[in-house]
Design brief:
Shape: elongated
Number of helices: 13
Mean pLDDT: 89
Number of domains: 4
Largest sheet: 6 strands, antiparallel
Radius of gyration: 36 Å
Strand content: 15-25%
């Protein structure tokens, strides 16, 4: 991310026009890395976000407020004690470094006005928020640092605050460009030199500036001078509120125009930008946590199924044991108590062919027959039980794989919320074999779910128009159930990829009947919304919705259907 010194300069410039003299009304800490100050200034309420996370370190006004924890963290409580009711006297920067210093005045007791400093260091993984007294003694900080954990500064209570070391040039302080250029080591590329030697620059800013100027990486005086003067001009435009942010492919940077920009345009650009990025990261984290839960359980259930299949293989011998018992019993009159460890008898079930039957020499022939009948009965009882278990485990695997499919096609946090609600309704999180409720991943999922959506989400099917027909697509099992059993009419046509996980797709029939070409197109869409999305020649079943039934007590998304036809298509998105 390109939250560089130039961006911070633009932010501070805007803040100085709107919140200087403002009163700090409330302080919150919605996440361990973020502090939000509620400020009343010029008869308006503002919320200032100070984010120190590695991915989203930034400082800007925000309208995207977050839920706060029930119990405020210690650092938040300390800031409330010292800063609530204080007024922002001024906001300064340290050159073009990513350090903003808020001077805040507050009466510590009647008639005694004290000045505190809230120092915001936005330096990637080293970002920090530090509260100091007027003499620079540290009251406390969000992160404590000292030489023992690799820091060259001491950042902890009662230590004296020291600025980070700065060996870079400040563009505003350089007057003679030619003299500076002559003293340079020109073995580096132009952008690398500026990035490593000029404070406040970033890769995104430099690359965009060079592209706009039409210069390359050649380290010559013309390129050096053009880039230097452009950045210096950009700083002047920032000061005059004539700079604005533009979004790049995977980043953003500053540009300037010939006229003043709208009020707080950079603050609110960054607010929207970082809010979107954070939502995307929350979505990925939320989805991956649930995928981890499901994958773990799929592995466990698959292992159980392997055990059940092994038992079924053992039970395949039961008819043989029954035969042995019957043949021995029918030939008892021929046998005596003295015998070898096997006996050869004629199998009257197979044209009297001879068969070798193993025997336990410690038992009589009659007891050997009883032993074989006992084995047969035991395996017969076992096969009845394990067959039921196998069916249940296969249904469980199919259901969990349908959850995996739903998670894979989810597009946002709201989609994941619906899947989460389905998993809750299926008691997914209550099963001891499914998930440890005390695990960190589970807590994160719960936190994200209720953070992003405290109320149950509504059904919002995907909708397409194919040849003038409305086509509805479910995105998860709950939507599939509702779409098939509540929305679809008897004469609507229901589609689903054959024998694999996929969405329920409904072709809504109004007045005219669809052609086979239209049916094939809807089948292509159905194949696209399935696990066979990357395959070709995919079989898709379709039938009237009246022939699709949901068995009692079946899992979400599970249906049975009859009178279907099958068409082979290539997946296609419309």
């Amino acid at each position: 991310m390109a939250f560089d010194g130039f961006t911070l300069k633009a932010i501070v410039n805007e803040l100085n026009s709107y919140i200087i003299g403002g009163r700090i009304e409330k302080i919150h800490q919605p996440t361990p890395e973020e502090i939000v100050l509620s400020i009343y200034s010029q008869r308006l309420n503002y919320a200032l976000s100070i984010n120190t996370s590695f991915s989203f370190y930034s400082l800007h006004l925000t309208t995207n407020l977050k839920l706060n924890p029930l119990s405020a963290p210690n650092f938040c409580m300390l800031l409330r004690k010292y800063l609530t009711g204080g007024r922002i006297k001024q906001i300064n920067m340290v050159g073009l470094e990513r350090i903003a210093i808020f001077e805040i005045e507050k009466y510590s007791e009647p008639g005694v006005l004290k000045t505190l400093k809230l120092i915001v260091e936005l330096m990637g993984k080293h970002s920090n928020i530090i509260l100091t007294a007027q003499d620079n003694s540290i009251i406390d900080s969000l992160r404590h640092l000292n030489s023992e954990n690799g820091s060259y500064r001491n950042i902890f209570p009662k230590a004296i605050y020291e600025l980070p070391e700065n060996t870079k040039f400040n563009i505003n302080e350089i007057e003679n460009i030619a003299e500076l250029y002559n003293d340079l080591n020109k073995k580096q590329s132009l952008s690398t030199y500026f990035l490593e030697n000029f404070a406040g620059t970033s890769k995104a800013l430099l690359e965009h500036s060079m592209q706009k100027l039409g210069i390359n990486e050649d380290f010559n005086f013309a390129n050096f001078e053009n880039l230097f003067l452009y950045l210096k001009k950009l700083l002047k435009k920032i000061q005059n509120n004539m700079a604005f942010c533009i979004e790049l492919d995977k980043d953003y940077t500053l540009e300037f125009s010939a006229k003043a920009q709208e009020n707080l345009s950079i603050n609110f650009f960054l607010d929207d930008y970082y809010s979107r990025k954070e939502q995307d990261e929350n979505f990925i984290q939320y989805r991956n946590n649930l995928l981890a839960f499901v994958s773990k359980n799929l592995k466990k259930i698959s292992k159980k199924l392997d055990g059940v299949n092994s038992k079924i293989d053992e039970c395949s011998e039961m008819e043989k044991y029954k035969l042995y018992g019957e043949l021995i019993t029918s030939n008892l009159y021929k046998l005596d108590k003295t015998h070898k460890d096997y006996i050869v008898l004629q199998n009257y079930y197979d044209n009297n062919k001879e068969i070798n039957i193993p025997l336990d020499i410690s038992l009589s022939p009659a007891d050997n027959a009883k032993k074989y009948f006992k084995k047969y009965n035991k395996l017969k009882n076992t096969i009845d039980i394990v067959s039921i278990q196998k069916n249940e485990l296969e249904n469980e695997i199919n259901y969990l794989e349908s959850i995996v499919y739903s998670l894979q096609i989810a597009k946002n946090v709201q989609d994941i919320d619906k899947i989460y609600e389905e998993m809750e309704s299926a008691n997914f999180f209550a099963r001891k074999t499914q998930v440890n409720k005390n695990s960190k991943a589970f807590k994160i999922s719960r936190k994200l779910k209720y953070k992003n959506n405290k109320v149950k989400t509504k059904n919002d099917f995907l909708s397409y128009n194919i040849d003038g027909f409305n086509v509805l697509v479910g995105r998860n099992n709950m939507e599939n159930d509702y779409l098939t059993t509540k929305i679809a009419k008897d004469n609507d046509i229901w589609f689903h990829v054959k024998d694999l996980q996929g969405s329920h797709v409904i072709l809504v029939i109004s007045q005219k009947e669809p052609s086979q070409e239209t049916i094939n197109k809807v089948a292509e869409l159905s194949a696209y919304y399935s696990k066979s999305k990357q395959s070709s020649n995919v079989p898709v079943d379709y039938t009237f919705a009246k022939y699709v039934k949901k068995p009692s007590k079946s899992k979400p998304g599970m249906v049975i259907y009859t009178n279907q036809k099958t068409v082979n298509v290539n997946p296609k998105f419309f």
